[in-house]
Specification:
Nucleotidyltransferase, domain 5; 5-stranded mixed beta sheet; 37% helix; ATPase_NBD; hydrolase
């Protein structure tokens, strides 16, 4: 499915009156031709975090102009009640108002602002979306798991090795985890990254596609992420026992994922796992002993399973108090890192690889690429 028109926003009737406040966003019409220097925005409202990027197309690259990230814990209590709580919604509205101000300051007209698993599951999600529109005038939309998965895949394309023939992209979120298995054997090596990026238009290609296609063997959205998995096992007191139970439970949820049955044997040099999430980047930062996070050192790093196991064992040895005070983990993530690590270890236990590629990129970058690609303002090639 091609991305929807990124120009979204309410246009009031000529005679309508409204309460005083910031003017709503009015996007360009379909007849507008985008200026290559125009700014684009992408916002990802997940179960735990609200994150936004404002960027400009530069050749085949995305040049980030401004960004925002805040832990809002929108899904706090969702596992038990099935609803978004008033306090969670209030925190999120506060963060979205900051995003609104940034969009105004940069005069951004082309944007895509999306919500994921927490809003897909909450029974009062529509009320929340309406509240966001009333309080911030932001056109927030809830996207389906497949679109979330393919946008995450697109964002990781530049990190895929030309030697990779079988690719697994893993996006560990707060409320869900998306896995996409891609067969690249029929795509020439020099075109593999571009073939992956072309998946932003949909996992199923048409018969008249002019380029060799990356074949999506299977994909799955497991309704367990770092926040929801933690909530399911919060009644287990022992730290190590809780970690083991979370990891095995997540592995059981992969039984319906068709490549799972083929996962056996020694490490395959033609197989690559790319992981995108706060869990993966936090594990990488801990491995590098970064007291201050540095994206340039983390994005694209390849870690061995031995290195990852050593980091996770260190987390377990620290215990909850040690993790809380570890600057490499951070205050926003210390309570979630073990559920994320449980998911990560389950994946590495199942599939035949001894390495993981770390991606400090994800849904926001995929949203930006899809918008810019649809507008024709990016040069052909990995961004």
């Amino acid at each position: 499915m091609p991305p929807e028109d990124p120009a979204r926003g309410p246009v009031p009737d000529a005679g309508a009156t409204r309460a005083a406040g910031p003017a709503p966003f009015v996007g360009p019409t379909q007849r507008d031709r985008p200026d290559p220097a125009e700014l684009y925005a992408a916002l990802d409202l997940g179960t735990n975090s609200c994150r936004m990027l404002i960027a400009q197309p530069k050749g085949s690259q995305l040049h980030v102009v401004d960004s925002f990230s805040k832990s809002v814990q929108l899904g706090n209590g969702l596992e038990a009640s099935g609803r978004l709580s008033r306090s969670s919604m209030a925190r999120t509205i506060g963060a979205l108002k900051i995003c609104r101000r940034k969009l105004e300051i940069h005069d951004v007209k082309r944007m895509r602002l999306v919500a994921t698993e927490a809003c897909r599951r909450a029974t009062n999600a529509r009320d929340f979306i309406d509240l966001v529109r009333r309080e911030t005038e932001l056109p927030l939309e809830i996207i389906e798991p497949e679109e979330e998965a393919r946008l995450a895949v697109v964002s990781c394309a530049p990190l895929v090795s030309a030697k990779t023939e079988q690719l697994l992209v893993v996006d560990i979120g707060g409320g869900s985890t998306e896995l996409v298995w891609i067969d690249l054997t029929r795509v020439p090596r020099h075109d593999r990254a571009r073939a992956i990026m072309r998946l932003h238009a949909g996992f199923q290609g048409g018969a008249t596609d002019p380029f060799p296609r990356a074949k999506v063997v299977d994909w799955i959205s497991v309704p367990l992420g770092v926040a929801t998995l933690k909530d399911q096992f919060r009644d287990v007191a022992d730290d190590a026992a809780r970690f083991a139970l979370m990891s095995w439970h997540f592995e059981e949820c992969l039984a319906e994922f068709s490549p799972y049955a083929d996962a056996a044997g020694d490490a395959d040099p033609g197989f690559q796992i790319v992981g995108t999430s706060g869990t993966v980047t936090t594990v990488a930062a801990t491995h590098l002993n970064l007291r201050r996070y540095d994206r340039s050192k983390v994005d694209g790093l390849r870690m061995t399973t031995h290195q990852i196991d050593r980091v996770v064992r260190g987390y377990l040895a620290q215990g909850p108090e040690g993790r809380r005070n570890d600057p490499r983990i951070g205050r926003d993530r210390h309570s979630l890192i073990m559920s994320g690590a449980a998911i990560l270890q389950a994946l590495l236990r199942v599939w035949p690889t001894d390495r993981l590629s770390v991606a400090d990129r994800g849904l926001r970058e995929g949203l930006l690429y899809a918008q810019m690609s649809a507008d024709g303002v990016l040069d052909d090639g990995p961004f």
